[in-house]
Amino acid sequence: MIRLEDVTLFVRAAALGSFSNAAREADLLPGQVSAAVHRLERDLDKRLFARSTRSLRLTAEGETYLPFAQELLAVMQAGEESLHSGNDELQGELKVAMPSDIGRNVLLPPITRFCDQHPKITLRLSLSDRVSDVFRDPIDVAIRYGVLDNSSYVALPLAENNRRVLAASPAYLEKYGRPASLDEVTQHHCLLFTMNSHVYDKWSFPENGARRQLTVKSRLLCDDADVARRWAVEGMGIVYKSWIDISADVQAGRLEILLPTHPGEAAPLNLICPHRKQFSPAIRQLHSVLREHLTAIADQLPC
Q1: What angle, 0 to 180 degrees and rounded to 10, lies between the N-to-C axes of helices 60-82 and 4-16?
Q2: How is the chain split into domains, by residue range?
Q3: Which of the 8 DSSP states describes residue 163?
């Protein structure tokens, strides 16, 4: 008979890429994780991992079995939560990943208030501009910008009407002038950041039913989008970011929107999860809180 703990350790070893990491997370010895996976392989009569002294990777059979194992664990979690459905008090662990800028500057206050209001909630927050893999990373849900390109995700919208805007500080505009067209933007200092090790140096804009793309350059580059926003506030150049990320700076006069009659690309924000069963009562309540907060900001977009 397949043991639930063996399935759990298989899923974590697949996500973390080694038996040692899975063991460390579960406070076990690596040999115990290896034995659990071996039992599962014996019960399934299939080899799930290809092992070597330096690497651990899923076999084709392991890749096939992994989503079913994840679904099994999700169903078990949902069943446990259903036993507490009559209890109005939210509880349990939430593991949430989100972009660094919006997480640190926009979402942290309402999330903190949410945790204060629900003291039985345990939060594990991951702030990074690396796009999390909700199927493999140790998270329950991720908050992500952009139009979803994977139909296997389940998504709850947070801010459908949000989009990117060009902005610069009054000091920069006084020193270098204000671009009068998209063509002139490429002649200015532009502030860039990387996402998943890829430089975001191609800025797209909807134009006449098509997409206009600008290739921009900068002497300043960082791997944290929040730093690009801070550079813009300090007068170092033009930034092209989500309105939600820079709305507070615009309203405080630290940044000004450029080319307001030329809209930027859509940047909808969603809360995503691999399986609908993982949308626990706590996650649904958190979604409701964040959606209300973000919709109010998105509705203030002045152009």
Answers
A1: 120
A2: 4-70, 92-151+271-298, 164-258
A3: B
- Please enumerate in sequence order all residues whose Cβ is within 8 A of that of 111, keeping only pairs 6 or more positions apart, or say none: 96, 123, 125, 286, 290
Number of neighbouring beta carbons within 10 Å of residue 93: 12
CATH architecture of the domain with range 4-70: Orthogonal Bundle (1.10)
> 92-151+271-298, superfamily in CATH?
Periplasmic binding protein-like II (3.40.190.10)
- This prediction has a pTM of 0.67
CA dist., res. 103 & res. 125, Å (int): 9
Taking Cα atoms as reference points, which of 280, 46, 141 lies closest to residue 10? Answer: 46
pLDDT tens, residue by residue, 153-208: 677 889 988 999 999 999 999 999 999 999 999 999 999 988 767 888 899 998 88
pLDDT of residue 191: 94
**Nearest-angstrom CA–CA distance, 129 and 134:** 14
Phi, psi of 254 (to 5 degrees): -75, -25
